[in-house]
């Protein structure tokens, strides 16, 4: 007889709290003993794959083990809050609640929600999708608070600020962190607004982690993001590290910078600077400012695929390549399957790169948005391809996005220059056709049964 959900939640909470207390006493001495403790207080079949991976990292003292140790160089209050909010609330208890609601309501429920507090930004980067919204839109604090409150009811405890430059609204961001102290907040930022006072604020709220946009070394980075951008990020990282605060890197790869950001030198430099994670994003040619020439060639994308996976085995940093790592999450994660995006006008979009919607959070609930026509088309259509190296309905399967938008009557949310879905998909079709043969070869290498 299996324990009911409340008993399981209580047992998991007790186990996590006991492990955290145990580790705080002497991390390096106690980490190797941690699995014995976990195995003692949790049933054998609970989270078995995660426990096996954790045990292997400890036994081999691998780069993942070194990354765990780096967490104990952080401010203790920030570290403990992160572990509770991310591991316990967002990843264990929250995921269970998401699954429960998803089954009951027959719709996707997201693990994370991306929010644009504002469309304003103090930079204008070449090919930036966020620029398509203009610079005059904002979600009020009350609206942001309502979204988080509704999200927690569904089991969502992870919130990621995008923009615009989210820290243009830093006081509201901090207030949201304070009010929802049981959630973890991340932020994509250019780093220009990180200063001494803000670092002290982060030590106070404890549940905010920035990801600095960095697209290679100085020449490559500043050619797209503006002169001085590279130095701004370096300055921000130095401040964060000095205050023992966690941070990561967000890197968009293009045909021009792919070699830089997948180099060992780049990995070593961001690790030395103190970054704990790096998220790689494929350039998306969205909107009137799109630059299709920035799309990586099949050969360049393949090189990224191989390099990032190789460094994952040796470098003490958590890396995720959202386009090439889809197999680990079962394909496209948008449409609320793992995340959704709410722009600064309140439009609820399936993906931060897909600027089409049927609904606005100002006139519907979050659950109603997840049941809207476009979101249900995602729910019913995922995965969009059996080859997980072709996960996206826009970039690798443009016929899928074209059909979904037409069938659901979703409207463009690009208010500066509305873009018809046919124009967008016509732009990505040549890329999809060029990538397919190489994607199938790569997929067959690691999945002998072949691409579907």
TrEMBL record:
Q: Mind listing the GO molecular function terms for this protein?
A: catalytic activity; iron-sulfur cluster binding; metal ion binding
User: Where does the UniProt annotation place the signal sequence?
Assistant: none
What residues form the membrane-spanning segments? none
Q: Which InterPro entries does this UniProt record tie to the protein? A: Aldolase_TIM, rSAM, rSAM_sf
Residue ranges constituting the Radical SAM core domain according to the UniProt record: 107-321
Which keywords are on file for this protein?
A: Iron, Iron-sulfur, Metal-binding, S-adenosyl-L-methionine
Q: Which Pfam families match?
A: Radical_SAM
CDD domains, sorted = Radical_SAM, SPASM_rSAM
Q: Which PANTHER family match?
A: RADICAL SAM SUPERFAMILY PROTEIN
The name of this protein is: Radical SAM protein
Species of origin reads Candidatus Gemmiger avistercoris
């Amino acid at each position: 007889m299996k324990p009911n959900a409340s008993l399981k939640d209580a047992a998991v909470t007790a186990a996590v709290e006991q492990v955290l207390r145990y580790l705080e006493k002497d991390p390096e001495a106690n980490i190797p003993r941690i699995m014995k403790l976990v195995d003692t207080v949790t049933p054998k079949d609970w989270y078995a794959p995660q426990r096996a991976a954790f045990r292997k990292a400890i036994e081999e003292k691998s780069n993942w083990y070194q990354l765990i140790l780096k967490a104990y160089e952080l401010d203790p209050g920030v570290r403990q809050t992160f572990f509770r909010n991310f591991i316990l609330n967002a990843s264990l208890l929250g995921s269970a609640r998401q699954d429960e609601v998803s089954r009951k309501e027959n719709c996707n429920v997201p693990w994370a929600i991306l929010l644009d507090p504002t469309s304003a930004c103090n930079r204008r980067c070449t090919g930036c999708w966020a620029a398509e919204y203009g610079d005059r839109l904002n979600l009020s604090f009350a609206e942001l608070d309502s979204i988080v409150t509704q999200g927690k009811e569904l089991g969502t405890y992870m919130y990621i600020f995008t923009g615009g430059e989210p820290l243009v609204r830093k006081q509201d961001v901090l207030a949201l962190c304070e009010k929802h102290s049981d959630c973890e907040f991340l932020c994509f930022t250019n780093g220009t607004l990180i200063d001494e006072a803000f670092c002290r604020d982060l030590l106070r709220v404890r549940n905010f982690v920035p990801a600095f946009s960095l697209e290679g070394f100085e020449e490559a980075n500043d050619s797209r993001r503006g002169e001085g951008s590279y130095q701004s990020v370096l300055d921000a990282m130095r401040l964060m590290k000095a205050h023992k605060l966690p941070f990561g890197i967000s890197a968009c790869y293009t045909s021009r910078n792919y070699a830089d950001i997948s180099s060992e030198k780049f990995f070593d430099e961001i690790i030395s600077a103190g970054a704990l994670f790096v998220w790689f994003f494929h350039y998306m040619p969205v909107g009137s400012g799109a630059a299709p020439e920035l799309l990586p060639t099949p050969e360049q994308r393949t090189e990224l695929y191989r390099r990032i996976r190789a460094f994952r085995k040796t470098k003490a940093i958590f890396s995720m390549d959202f386009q090439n790592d889809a197999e680990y999450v079962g394909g496209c994660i948008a449409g609320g399957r793992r995340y959704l995006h709410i722009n600064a006008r309140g439009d609820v979009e399936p993906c931060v790169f897909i600027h089409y919607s049927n609904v606005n959070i100002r006139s519907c609930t979050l659950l109603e948005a997840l049941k809207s026509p476009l979101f249900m088309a995602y729910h019913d259509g995922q995965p969009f391809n059996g080859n997980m190296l072709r996960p996206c309905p826009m970039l690798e399967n443009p016929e899928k996005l074209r059909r979904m938008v037409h069938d659901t009557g979703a409207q463009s949310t690009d208010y500066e220059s509305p873009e018809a879905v046919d124009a967008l998909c016509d732009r990505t079709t040549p890329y999809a056709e060029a990538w397919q043969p190489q994607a199938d070869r790569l997929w067959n290498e690691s999945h002998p049964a072949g691409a579907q």
